[in-house]
Amino acid sequence: MQGIPSGFALTAVANFLTAKGQSSYSVGSFVAIVGLPWIFQFVWGPIIDRYQFSVIGHRKHWVVLTQLVAFLASLGLLFVTDPVRQLSLLSTLFFLHSNFASVQDASVDAIAISIVPEQERGRVNAFMRGGYLLGIAGGSAGLSTILNSYGFFYAAATQSALLLFFTVLTFLIRLDTTDSYLPAFNVAKKEKSSNLTGNPELKWLFRALYKAVTERKSIRTFLQIALVYSCLSIFIRAFSFHLIHNLHWADNSVSVLQGGWGTIATLIVTISGGYLADKIGAARLQYRVMLAIALFLIVFSLSSHFWAIKMVSTAGLLLYNFADPMFSVAAMPVLMLLCHKKIEGSQFTCYMALVNFCDVIGSYFSGWAMTFTSASRVGLICGLAILATTVLKKYFEKKLI
To answer: How confident is the model at residue 253 (pLDDT cuts 50, 70, 90)?
Structure first.
């Protein structure tokens, strides 16, 4: 449910706007506006932890409520008749939807980190990422096809229908056999019997959260992960713009490649990576994936003279589809290990907000950079930056040992 709007807005619509002659700066700004609400997830984490009890499921009321409102916000897109001429309205409506979707995401993350045993976090993150990838595939490849064949209205209507379906499905899923589908009048009694009283105060939550995320180990680990996410965002936006604007690819072809072809293979690799992270350790897998991504970006960028060959560019897009989810499978358990007890949901949500901030900044920076340089240079710089970070990561680990 998070992947469908993400794939639709950030891939299908972004590529559509590029094909219609919008500048790289305009497209980058649109992507940044859509992603902006995800930066403020750190605010929602403590609030979700503070008011987490519900008779329909622990924190589940946050998920269902925000999914319902996100569906209603999606219906607003039906008023857009011309996405290019109404770019401001389009950006505003997607921005509104992202606000509610970000709370939904924070709620799901809080549930996951509170109930998943440490030895299973790799595979659980893999399945969470896998579901997100399926959503992106539907939103980018599926809705892009509808957008180009039937128009924006029908693409937005299809997205809204899918969001409504998954909202109902989520409501029907019980986190526990004792959960109810309807509110109860003896909430106080149930809360007491379930040992859910004594929720921490918001002031304590924010203070503890600040202390946890500003620890030296936390800062060093997150900065390494943040740089990789930023570089991946910068590269894919620049490369997509290059394919459509310079090599004159059809925007639907790029969207289908980014979200459609290779999805099954990517899912298999992602889920396998989750089990591998549990087996060999997430930190070790993260180092190997970072090294592989750095080498891929460097070699692929140096081979830019061959990008005009469609097979080469297609291979680059498909390989990128493996890079992002594999890194997420390795990085998420590492961030979970940094989380302190009682504020696990808040702290992990804070990390996710910062990761989303990296994606927003990357999209904006990519749009700005493409006004004066080439996608190949952007990719080369990103690859070298990740390689330098990988070497530093290994150095610090040896120093600590």
So the answer is: confident
